[in-house]
Amino acid sequence: MQKQDKIIEMFNEIAPSYDKANRILSFGVDISWRKYACKKVLKYYKPDFISIVDVACGTGDMIAIWQEKARMLSKNITSIKGIDPSEGMLEIAKQKFPNIDFIQAKAQNLPLENQSVDIVSISYGIRNVVERKQALSEFFRVLKKGGIFVILEFTKREKGGFIATLRDFYLKNILPTLGGIISKNKSAYEYLPNSIDEFLSKEEFIKELNDCGFEILDFKSFSFGVSSMFIARKL
Ligand SMILES: C[S@@+](CC[C@H](N)C(=O)[O-])C[C@H]1O[C@@H](n2cnc3c(N)ncnc32)[C@H](O)[C@@H]1O
């Protein structure tokens, strides 16, 4: 099996326990990172009527947050879609959000028209996309001119120090054990720290976004660099 197919298969296997594991392993703090990012994007993007596509949507966590923040800021979501290649993750998403349009597809081959979307989001997903540059150009292709791309991701550790060491200890020792107990699939939770190590640093990722034609509007590091938010605009 190819690397990308193995990753998708792994998400199929952990899908039933994914939400529970996520909340426990992040102590629920990921919700505040997601809320912050969605609110920021809706403030950057001026039109009141917006279409949103959440790629690597998993069990659909970003969908509820987009809806909540749009309501708060009096924005009208004209269309919101979730896209993910994992059947298992989409099954849970559809149970949670029966009225939302979910599509089974990969980020590197989006079944969407050119320049048809106002906002594309991807949370903790881009790390799993093997053909990342192809996916970035797909996001660029489907976004309207001036459209916004927001990414939440765990970026590679850049600095040393106590907090960074603590984060690495948690990711490499505690998380796989706890994740393994909750999901009964320890190797899936060993994949997480390894995939972070293999991913880019903040600067490297910003360069890839720029090379693709995106202008960086905002960057934020959450919880001492545990998670990062990038907001970019299609020029
Ligand atoms: C860590 S989960 C994140 C799910 C959700 N966005 C969240 O924030 O909870 C990563 C997701 O990426 C999806 N994924 C893996 N490879 C992908 C690809 N090539 N294109 C799009 N999504 C992919 C997986 O199926 C999985 O649902």
Task: Describe the 3D structure.
The chain is 49% helix and 23% strand. It is of the alpha/beta class. A seven-stranded mixed β-sheet has the order 3-2-1-4-5-7-6, with helices on both faces. The longest helix is centred in the first third of the chain and has 23 residues, at 3-25. The relative contact order is 0.16. S-adenosylmethionine binds at residues 4, 7-8, 11, 55-58, 61-62, 84-86, 89, 106-108, 123-125, 128-129. It comes from Campylobacter molothri.
Short overview:
This protein is an alpha/beta fold and 235 residues long.
Topology of this structure?
Layout: H1 3-25, H2 30-44, E1 49-55, H3 61-72, E2 76-84, H4 87-96, E3 101-104, E4 117-123, H5 132-142, E5 143-153, H6 162-183, H7 186-198, H8 202-211, E6 214-222, E7 227-234
Parallel strand pairs: 1-2, 1-4, 2-3, 4-5
Antiparallel strand pairs: 5-7, 6-7
Helix pairs in contact: 1-4, 1-6, 2-3, 6-7
Bound molecules: S-adenosylmethionine.
The site of S-adenosylmethionine (SAM) has 22 residues, from helix 1 and helix 3.
Keywords: Methyltransferase, Transferase
Protein name: Bifunctional demethylmenaquinone methyltransferase/2-methoxy-6-polyprenyl-1,4-benzoquinol methylase UbiE
Output the keywords.
Bifunctional demethylmenaquinone methyltransferase/2-methoxy-6-polyprenyl-1,4-benzoquinol methylase UbiE; alpha/beta; binds S-adenosylmethionine; 8 helices; 235 residues; 7 strands; transferase; Rossmann fold; globular; methyltransferase
